[in-house]
Structure formats: C-alpha cells, structure tokens
Amino acid sequence: MDQQTSVELLRKMLEIYSPSGKEQGLASFLRGELEELGFRGVRLDRAGNLYGEIGSGLSVVLLCGHMDTVPGRLPVKIEDNKLHGRGAVDAKSSLAAMISAASSLASHAINGKIVVAGVVEEERKANGIRQLLREGLSVDYAVFGEPSGVKNITFAYKGRLDLRITCKTVPGHVGAQHLLDNAIEKSFELWNRLRTSAERYESPRGVFHSLTPCLTGVKTRRTSGGVPDISILQVDLRLPPAIKCADGIGIMEEAVGDFQRENEKASVSLRVVDKVEPFVASKDSALMKALREAVLEVAGGPVRLLRKTGTGDMNIFGAETGVPVATYGPGDARLSHTPYECIDLTEYLTSIEVYRRMLEKILL
C-alpha cells in the first residue's frame, strides 16, 4: 500500500462516524478493505470485532486497535498536512497504520502470522477486548494502537474503577427544609470525604503513582416533589500500580462507612459498575526490544517509555494472557476527545513504517 492509499484509507475511516456502540458501519467498510488488501480469514465476532490475517506460521503477532470513538462529530478535512476528524488521534490513525503495515507484508515470506483486530467499545466498557479474549486467540506478542507519539512507547497504564454511590434521605416538603437533610447537599459532603480519603494515597512520585478520583456525574431525584431525597454520584477512580481494584474498593467503602455512621438519617450505598486493573508491561521483552529498535531506525531517538494516567485495552489483555505487550501509535494524546483532534500526516506515515519494521524484526 503506497502512502497516498494509506492516507485515503484513514480519511475514509474518519468519515464513518463510529461512537461506542455504533461501530457497525466502520466494521463493514474495513471488512471489505481487508479482503481487497489480501488479508485471510476476515470475519466479525459476536461483539462486532473485526479480524484479518496476513502470513502463516507458529509465531503470531496481534495488532489491536479500536474502531470506536467518543461521541461528537468533527469535520473531516486536510489542512497544513494535518488530517482532522473524530478519531484522528484516538485512535483510528493507529488502526489504519496497523492495517497498512500488515498489508505491506502480504507478499513477503514471513515466518509467522499477523492478526489485525479492530475492536469495539474501548471508550466505554471494553466489551470488544473482553470478547477477543473469549475468542481464544493464541498469540505470542500483542501491540495496541493508541496515541503515544512516534518516538514514544507506552508500557504502563493506571487502573480504573467506575463507581455509583447513592445517598438517600427522608423526603419532605420544601417548606420544611430546615427540618430535613437534602440528599444533594449530603452527597457533596460525601464526595469531599471520598476525595480526602484518596488524598492520603497521593504519591511524591507524581500523579501516575497516586490514587486520583474524578466526579463525572450527579443524578438527583425528588420522589415526593419536595426536598431532594436521592442523589447518585458517578465517580471515576484511577488506580496506581500499587493499588489494585480490591484495594481501591476497600478505601472507598471505608470512607462511605465512616460517613454513614456520622449521618444516621441518611442511607448510603456503593456499587461497582466496571473495573480495570492497573498494568505495567515488561520493558525488556523481545517485543519491546523490536519496537524500540524500529522507532530508533525510522523516527530517531531518544525513545521514551511512557506511563499513562488513563487505561487501555492493554490492561485487560496483558493481565489475562501474560504475553509480551506494548502500546504504540501516532498522535498527540492531548488532542484526544477534544474539538481539535487531528493527526500530522507525516507522523502517521512514519508510524506505518515503525509497525512494519517491528513486524519484520519479529517475523522475518
């Protein structure tokens, strides 16, 4: 695949709006593209993930990117050598680069197999990568496509807890507000308690090593039309490697329990909606060595190894399989989820060559 064709592939992908849960149109388009590019065994699984294979042999490399984006349409256009559009950074450019790199080896006698997977719902509950694991793919190495920048490799992510904390108080007339607890006000007292509890785990080594909560939503109800008596806090709790999901839940439950004992008229409960363990990949694996060498050869040095404060599909896959993993892809991660999302086309094309060199080092 030449450079212009690779750019055109990414442009078409950006023109297909694919927020989490609505990836079918992009999956259908890419299925046809993979078949035309010479991929074998092109298929969709029950979750809507897309797979295609290049080569054959005992060694198997998985290149995994996600097809979904956050909601919000953006105009697709090229200006000043930058391609704009939702997903240009996070992370259709990585998936397009993986497809381009793998297809460039279709006519080579590679000593192994490349599996390219486009998964769904990475931006939501990671149903795609969980289904991929249920499919029972046997691979020796896995690279995940997320924006690291072409001279950087991500080897560590924080974990995540998605929590719902409900505070209920006795309902009553607004005119009697001086006699009643307001569930909204109580829930914000509770939020301050939760945040204070998390601050005890702040690390002098920085935010990656600290427990960091974020209040992402508040829902309230007035069941009798009076003083609010139900308030639900949506809390995103990011976990450093030293604090596993069970530990994070315990810290929050302790804070909720203390608050409950001090506020006997209120009823407080905590529910875990989703959880992803923190993950740190080996920096000394054969995969990491091949990827670092490829970056040096194509993009030059120095090569930085990054710890990210977000989470990724690498967390789930790496923890369950134990195979060597890494995350790599073009783009400035600071543009992810913003109205300014765009990818520098030179960087995008450079990443294709990095993926290709890495594959050659492992499979040729």
Helix fraction bin: 25-40%
What is the N-to-C succession of helices and strands?
A: HHEEEEHEHEEEHEEHEEHEHEEH
Characterize the largest beta sheet: strand count, sense, and whether it forms a barrel: 5 strands, mixed
Radius of gyration: 23 Å
CATH architecture of the largest domain: 3-Layer(aba) Sandwich
Structure keywords:
alpha/beta; elongated; Aminopeptidase; 364 residues; single chain; four-stranded antiparallel β-sheet; five-stranded mixed β-sheet; Alpha-Beta Plaits
Write a compact overview of the structure shown.
The chain is built from nine helices and 15 strands.
Protein model, in words:
With 364 residues, the chain is α/β, with parallel strands linked by helices. The protein has two domains: 3-157 and 278-363, 3-Layer(aba) Sandwich (Aminopeptidase), CATH 3.40.630; 159-276, Alpha-Beta Plaits (2-Layer Sandwich). Helices cover 34% and strands 27% of the residues. It is built from nine helices and 15 strands. The strands form four sheets. Strands 1, 2, 5, 6 and 14 form a five-stranded mixed beta sheet that branches. Strand 9 and strand 10 (230-239) form a beta hairpin. The mean pLDDT is 96.
Helix and strand topology:
Blueprint (H helix, E strand, L loop, with lengths): L2 H13 L8 H13 L3 E5 L5 E17 L10 E3 L2 E3 L7 H12 L7 E9 L7 H8 L6 E4 L7 E6 L1 E10 L14 H17 L12 E10 L8 E10 L5 H18 L4 E10 L2 E2 L5 H14 L4 E5 L4 H9 L3 E3 L14 E3 H19 L1
Parallel strand pairs: 2-5, 2-6, 6-14, 7-13
Antiparallel strand pairs: 1-2, 3-4, 4-15, 7-12, 8-10, 8-11, 9-10
